[in-house]
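Sample intake — Protein kinase domain-containing protein
Collected from: Thlaspi arvense
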Amino acid sequence: MKNVPPEAGKSIFCLFFFIFLSCCNLCFSELSSSQTSTMIELSRFLNISDWNLPGSERNPCLWKGVLCSQPDNGSVINLSLSGFDLTNSSFLSLVCQIPTLEHLDVSNNILNSIPDGFMTNCETLVGLKHLNFSGNQVSSFPGFRGFSKLEVLDFSNNNLSGNIGDYGLHALVQLKRLNLNFNNLTGSVPTNLTKSLVILKVSDNHLSGTIPEGIQDYQELTQIDLSDNQLSGSIPNSLGNLTKLGSLLLSNNHLSGSIPESLSSIQTLSRFAANRNRFTGAIPSGITKHLENLDVSYNNLNGSIPGDLLSQRKLIFVDLSFNQFDGWIPQSISPSLVRLRLGSNKLTGQMSSAAFESLQNLTYLEMDNNSLTGLIPRELASCPSLTLLNLAMNKFTGILSHAIGNLTTTLQVMKLQQNKLTGEIPDSIKRLSNLYTLDISWNSLNGSIPPSISQLRNLSTMNLQGNKLSGSIPANIGDLNSLIELQLGDNQLSGRIPVMPPKLQISLNLSYNLFEGPIPTSLSQLQQLEVLDLSNNNFSGEIPDFLTVLVSLTQLILSNNQLTGFAPRFTRNVILNVSGNLGIKSRKDEVYIQKKPPGKSNLILVVIFVATGVLGLVAVIITVIALKFSRRFNGVNNMQVDPVEERSVEVPEVIHGKLLTSNALHRSNINFSKAVEATAHPETALLQTIFWSYYRVPMPSGSSYLIKKLNTRDRLFQQASSEQLEQDLEMLGKLHHPNVMVPIAYVLYSEGFLLFYDFAHSHTLYDVLHSHPSDVVDWTSRYSIAVGIAQGISYLHGSKSNDGVPILLPDLSSKKIMLKSLTEPLVGDIELFKVIDPSRSNSSLSAVAGTIGYIPPGKHIIQNLILSVSEKQELS
Ligand SMILES: *[C@@H]1O[C@H](CO)[C@@H](O)[C@H](O)[C@H]1NC(C)=O
Ligand SMILES: *[C@@H]1O[C@H](CO)[C@@H](O)[C@H](O)[C@H]1NC(C)=O
Ligand SMILES: *[C@@H]1O[C@H](CO)[C@@H](O)[C@H](O)[C@H]1NC(C)=O
Ligand SMILES: *[C@@H]1O[C@H](CO)[C@@H](O)[C@H](O)[C@H]1NC(C)=O
Ligand SMILES: *[C@@H]1O[C@H](CO)[C@@H](O)[C@H](O)[C@H]1NC(C)=O
Ligand SMILES: *[C@@H]1O[C@H](CO)[C@@H](O)[C@H](O)[C@H]1NC(C)=O
Ligand SMILES: *[C@@H]1O[C@H](CO)[C@@H](O)[C@H](O)[C@H]1NC(C)=O
Ligand SMILES: *[C@@H]1O[C@H](CO)[C@@H](O)[C@H](O)[C@H]1NC(C)=O
Ligand SMILES: *[C@@H]1O[C@H](CO)[C@@H](O)[C@H](O)[C@H]1NC(C)=O
Ligand SMILES: *[C@@H]1O[C@H](CO)[C@@H](O)[C@H](O)[C@H]1NC(C)=O
């Protein structure tokens, strides 16, 4: 050793030390061989590409979703297989062989069963604490045995059916968090679960019976969600004994009786939602003492609103709308309030000025459809966050300029229609630079429309009808580049009609005014306009030809003017009303289809008619329907809308997906979350219209679906129920006709909804007519197509939903006619909306105050379509 220098000795020592270390690593810091081989077997079965990366094949602790015990990596404790598109659950038997497992997450896959014995016989998983099966398609499993350490069970968003009592949940003696939301379970709210339960979520099932008194025994509960079931009876007083409860959600059941005062004794309770039930009686005072969030809308509560209800200092959201509350609005309102909804009650008296002084956070204020009187308090202008102000349908008086005063630039929606406001529209309205909807119709406003109104560049709807406005329309109104609806009917306007806003679409209504002279040629630029109402003025001269080339027009109302001459010929999808014009001559002698010698040209006429005449229906007010719809749909089942959350960009949460067909194939194919995710990027759409986007979405199973998405832009202001929406969507699924395309499924999610269609029919009529050599479609086929479409449309127009609401065909064009084969067309793109009772939309749109709706293309269109087709049959 003499010859060896000391440095070398050190090196050799180091070398040995390192070899020892790595040995140690190999010997003591790796997964046991049995777990390694189990995991490798699992990886072969699942074929997850991330698990086979070079270098990690034999070290499962490195695999994505696998977590080993620390510090030694000696055993697998966490296994997450979430979102791996798994369809075959046999792998669970392998999972059973990992006795050290504590967390198992198989959420968001396409599993529709659980292998026999997993729940009952997997005794090896003695330490499992957390089992997440949410977002699969499991319809049942035998009740739990074992799993005595399970603390968290998430089985939400599956198809579990049968009685909740049969799933052996009482055997889970350590359970703390139970989530069974969105299943199909029956039975009653379980009271024999472990008393250590902290979270109980069973919303969106078919549970019935009452809320059991026994629920008070779950003293640890912090969250109860029983929403969207069929529970009846009253809320037991004893719920007030749950001293740790933070959130109590009972929305959308059949509950009755009064709201128990005992709830106000729960100091931790921050959220209480009991909306859409049958509660009666007065609301107890003190109920909001600790609350942030109260929703009791859509009940039959009455009496006055307790003086302290709105003043509690933690309050953020309060919704009392759609009840029978009377009396005055309390004088004291908490500065913490963000949203206050008191609409559709029987409130009277004045809004106290002091109450609305400097409510820093107040963003949404809705008090419409009451009997409030007096002035609209100027102090609202000192609410710096106010975005939505809806005081429509009350008895407010005073001058409008007082009301508008200094309202903030944050305001986006102002609805003051159907009050008794007087005075002029103030010039200061121009300061509301973010205004999107302005409705001050049906008041007693006078003076002229201030030219500064054209500075409201974001305005999309302006409704000034039913006032006493005079003078002419401001010359620069055409600067309103975003305006799609302009209602100026029922005023005393006169003078020159200026160039109108170029994007007008829903309607331009100038009826019941004092306009005269010829119909202005500048209207020819309104290529998107669907309804034009010039009735009840003094327009004179001939009806100009350019009106016939407004391609989107569906309704033209010229009645009660001084027009003369022949009416030009309009396409059949325009409903023309020229009554009350003494100078208009009729064209009795003219025949629509001129007889020509039989031959191809006539057949071309038929097909062109089908292709273009049907295309005419394009115009059918998709806008209105889409806009109405977007407002109708509201996820606000229990008022979860947090404006701050709404603004953030996250993958939207699936609320409810439902298959509309009994074809089980689709059940295993469709993955709702995938669809929501895939349609989150507008740039990937196949086709976009103003209101809808169409996507082709491949599902994990390999098959693709055509998915249609509503492009909502004002979801903050949506007002109706998701319940009604679901009913409408389900109705669509019940249609049955060989020539009608019916959606296969729908999904509601936090931002709207999607409709699923089969993608198998890849050719549209448009493709066939335009891109293929003409000999592909012979005349017999063309004839069959024409007849098929006519029958499909005819079926739809004869159909009604269960409450008599007609079915609508917006945006129908040859691009939306799918071909099952060269002789079998499918009419696509049908909707079913309770938009408006068509019988009310007679000659003047003003009859439909504020609610422009769909006007069905009169029966004559269909009849003519069928007629012209059968005429051809005779000729050929
Ligand atoms: C495993 O997945 C790859 C693609 O990720 C695929 O090519 C291969 O065929 C799959 N193997 C089996 C056995 O399914
Ligand atoms: C355990 O495995 C992880 C990877 O999952 C690795 O980063 C870590 O170094 C390993 N620990 C030991 C002591 O081997
Ligand atoms: C194991 O997974 C669960 C979720 O399934 C997670 O909450 C937990 O933090 C994980 N454990 C560790 C140590 O990462
Ligand atoms: C699931 O996998 C197992 C084992 O590979 C196989 O026997 C079974 O047929 C599969 N089930 C389905 C429905 O594919
Ligand atoms: C279960 O998984 C889903 C989807 O990954 C997740 O959203 C949910 O929070 C998980 N549940 C629990 C209790 O961790
Ligand atoms: C627990 O209660 C349910 C009804 O809520 C019942 O069906 C079930 O049999 C009960 N289980 C036990 C063990 O009592
Ligand atoms: C849900 O359960 C009800 C009643 O048990 C049953 O009629 C219905 O068909 C079930 N629906 C689904 C989708 O399983
Ligand atoms: C529970 O509430 C009822 C009625 O509110 C009361 O009589 C009873 O004493 C309370 N029990 C407990 C344990 O607090
Ligand atoms: C208003 O909202 C902000 C931000 O959420 C909050 O910090 C503040 O406390 C609120 N004001 C009141 C009076 O509650
Ligand atoms: C509006 O605000 C300005 C200055 O901020 C003030 O001078 C004016 O009096 C206010 N008008 C009304 C109607 O409150």
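Post-analysis note: Residues 159, 161, 184, 186, 206 surround 2-acetamido-2-deoxy-beta-D-glucopyranose (ligand 7) (CB under 6 Å).
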